[in-house]
Amino acid sequence: MKTMSRADKYPQFKGFYMIMRKAPIHGKNGELSQLIENRGYKCICLSPYSPTLETLKDKVKRNKLSNAETLALELLKETKMFLLNIYKNLSNIL
């Protein structure tokens, strides 16, 4: 909800995708997905384990935000790979 509250401040984010895992906390019947869509966003659910997401989390943990510039570049690289993987998966589905 915090992410959406922050995004709500910027109308240009409406229609953007919120990416989340299929975790039990997100609701069995798609309650969270419905909340997201009701606020004007779209939702993509990843599998419970996403190697790319784990890599991003590991980089953040290892760097401990000590070198912001290096961390930002690494996160950009990993985010690019993450988004490319999502695009490939979506193109296989559609």
Provide an overview of this structure.
The chain has 94 residues and is mostly helical. The two termini are 29 Å apart. The radius of gyration is 15 Å and the shape is globular. It has a two-stranded parallel ribbon with strand order 1-2. Strand 1, helix 2 (31-38) and strand 2 (42-46) form a beta-alpha-beta unit. 56% of the residues lie in helices and 11% in strands.
Write a concise synopsis of the structure shown.
With 94 residues, the protein is mainly alpha-helical. It is built from four helices and two strands. The protein folds into two domains: 1-47, no CATH class; 50-94.
Tags for this entry?
mainly alpha; two-stranded parallel sheet; RNaseH_sf; 4 helices; 2 domains; nucleic acid binding; 94 residues
Task: Itemize the secondary structure elements and their pairings.
Layout: H1 2-7, E1 17-21, H2 31-38, E2 42-46, H3 51-63, H4 68-93
Parallel strand pairs: 1-2
Helix pairs in contact: 3-4
Share of helical residues: 55-70%
Structural class: mainly alpha
Oligomer: single chain
The low-confidence parts are: none
| Biggest β-sheet strands, sense, barrel | 2 strands, parallel
Using only CA atoms, what is the Rg?
A: 15 Å
Number of helices: 4
What is the number of domains? 2
> Kindly state the mean pLDDT as a whole number?
74
β-strand percent reads 5-15%
Number of DSSP strands? 2
* Distance, first to last CA: 29 Å
> Biggest sheet, strands in spatial order?
1-2
